[in-house]
Amino acid sequence: MKSSMSRRRFLRGSLQGAAVTVALPFLDCLLNEHGTAFAGTGEPLPVVFGTWYQALGYTPGRWVPSSEGRGFDVPAALKALAPYRDKINLFSGMAYFHDGRPAVVHSTEVASTGHYGGKPQPSIDALIGDVIGTRTRFKSLEVSLAGDDGSVSRSAGSTTNNPSERSALALYTRLFGPGFTDPNSSDFKPDPRVLAEKSVLSAVAEDRRRILTQLGYSDRARLDEYFTSIRQIEKQLAMSLEKPAPLAGCRVPKSPGVVADGPLPEQVDATAKAMYGLVTHAVACGQTRVINMHLGRHDRIRRIGEAGTWHSLTHEEPVDLDLGYQREVAWFMDWATSVFGDFLGALQNYKEGAGSVLDRCVVLWMTDHSDARVHSVENVPVMMAGTGGGRFRTGMHLALPGDPTTRVGLTLQQGLGVPTSSWGSLSNGTSRTIADIVV
Question: CATH number for the 48-185+249-437 domain, one of 1.10.760, 3.40.720, 2.40.160, 3.40.50?
């Protein structure tokens, strides 16, 4: 039998004679019966994981190379990525599996979480972030380029996706405004506000132990999960009290000022240019090791003077009989690929010692469909870019017909140190990595 407790119950303690409190999360006993109410160390620079989400896939026949392995021919839809062919792996023939359930169109559940429908799961960036992102100021950064807060990133225990930052100026302030510590500055002074916050979290320890004795098993487990998240905050605060290791590549950027964001390709291009610089600087300055880039909502992106959006065109534009595909839709796909190519270029052009930021990154490119015109999920394109600091081989086209796309995600997780031997559910579940790309 669970004990009853007021929903206004707080953990209480004292700090230098002043009372401090920490609110509790929702526990079973708070609800009714139905639950309705390194530069000098010699160590390599840390690896960085990223995701890139572009909806609506690619036009069949325009993106699969005619050759496999290294030195593959770059197909028409990927021409913008030709300069980075040797830094990319392209996977063809892979699929999402419904397992007899109704199709959830424009879903990225399989690519990002390894699951299709059912209970919400943490996304791949969250799983990898639990390993490589625990000692940075931001566990992850989410950025959208088309004036919306769309994202395919989801933290463990959350039922909603993490919102993306859509404003370049807001992202700059968040990254390099108050709270930023230049790792190469000789003048380091811990922020007294951080000292106070850390003490506040520690001050409720005694009341925490007392309340645990009053709870049932499920509430103790839930509260333990809650305190685990608080301990993560404590670790983040503790790092703020230590002088960060110098990073030779860190250069604090200038503010981008106000950049007019929006769903027009011209607006996306301008936002992307500003965002790429900020994200790359954030990585180089050790602010984060996990980045999530979202091109933008496909049902908003449109060209000037056109009423139809990219998404609506996939269903409404007739196939050009001479070309054999939808002309306007193909234009959007080619443009979106060029935006991704510009992102790789920004990472490549930011130099760190003898290499670049891209050298220590691995970016997973994801989409929702193979052919958005008919919502197909067979032969879904998947890409990855970057070697992750030499952990992966690149420059290959690998045809894996009928395999679940989760094989790529599992391989990346294992290569980045996630202790897992399988990933995904039902037919999308796999324990097979892709050995060809693992060093």
Answer: 3.40.720
Question: Looking at residue 216, what is its pLDDT?
Answer: 83
CB atoms within 10 A of CB 218: 12
CA separation (Å) from 290 to 1, 178, 352?
43, 21, 18
What does pTM read for this prediction?
Answer: 0.80
Contact between 211 and 220 under an 8 Å Cβ cutoff? The reply is no
Which pair of tokens denotes residue 365? Answer: 């490119």
Q: Which of 285, 289, 182, 199 is nearest to 243 (CA)?
A: 182
Buried b (16+ CB within 10 A) or exposed e, 302-328: bbeeeeebbbebbeebeeeeeeebbeb
151 touches 122 (CB < 8 A): no
Element (H, E) at 40: none
Handedness of CA 271, 158, 368, 360 (dihedral sign): positive
**Residue among 125, 157, 123, 152 nearest 138 (CA):** 125
CA Rg, the chain, in Å?
23
> CA-CA distance, 309 to 299, in Å (whole number)?
6
Q: Using CA atoms, how far apart are residues 357 and 284, in angstroms rounded to an integer?
A: 7
By the 8 A CB rule, do 369 and 106 touch?
yes
The bridge status of strand 361-366 relative to strand 69-70 is unpaired
**Tokens representing residue 129 in the block:** 């972030």
Beta bridge mates, 92: 399
Indicate the pairing of strand 355-356 with strand 351-352.
antiparallel
Contact 107, 88 (CB under 8 A): no
Q: Cite the residue boundaries of each domain of the chain with CATH code 3.40.720.
A: 48-185+249-437
The parts of the chain modelled with pLDDT lower than 70 are 1-12, 14-43, 186-203, 222, 225-226, 228-244
Give whole-number Cα distances, 84 to 81, 148, 407, in Å.
5, 28, 23
